[in-house]
Amino acid sequence: MSTDYQQAREALGARLRELRLLAPEGRLTGTQLAQWLGWPHSKVYKLEGGRQTATTEDLRAWAGAVGQPETFDELDARLKGFESHIRSWRRQLAAGHRPVQDSWNLEVDRSRAIYAWEEAVIPGMLQTADYARHIFLRYADLQGTVHDTDEAVRARMKRQEWLYQGGRRFHALVWEAALHALVCPPSVLVSQLDRLTGLIGMDTVQLGIVPLGASLKIPTANGFWVLDERLVIAEDWHAELWLDDADSVATYLRVWRTLKKSAVFGVDAQNMINRVRRSMRPR
Asked: What pLDDT is stored for residue 2 in this prediction?
């Protein structure tokens, strides 16, 4: 299963390959083109296969090297068409939450480092099944969509297997407000907070909590995730925004690093979570 944005990247790659094979001066091999451009051989095939996103400069160089500079405007328009991809919740959730989780799982599986900021909920990668179930139910009710809650929960829990694979690192920042938010019964939230404290110290998890009373360098705006410094996924009420251009990725990473300056980690984070947990009154 491919995301719309990945399909667009693959389509651009197919067009690049077509231009290489139809060069006016004769068909070019990937090796010849790479040598001509001074690129690693692998870059040509990653671009053509949709495994790497071209820059505007890459496209201009490619069009010139294959003897078809007039195609640059077309290629650049294709690139701009999927650098910022808005995926409306109404369209995405037409078949329920499970397909959305499957799309996320594909992107997470191919990532080595993930940076997340959540200001209102516990990050999905760290949720308990019961907590996730209530989140899905809340959003399904809001959007009036299919209640495929059990399937969606299973898909989200499967994604968490990523946390137990070597060479991976999940860098999560959570605003303290999310620890208090009763989007589920208090007993479920207590279990969720217990899970958070247990995750602190894992080799693959860095969890920071931004206290409500912390001095902030910037406002605590909407949640977002950065995957391998190649893709940003940000959420709003009407849509999920997938950003693939270098400038946007750099901006979101800068935001994440700025928020990190206000966070506490390790024992301090555990103590904060435990204080919130002790304040909970099961109902």
From this structure: 44
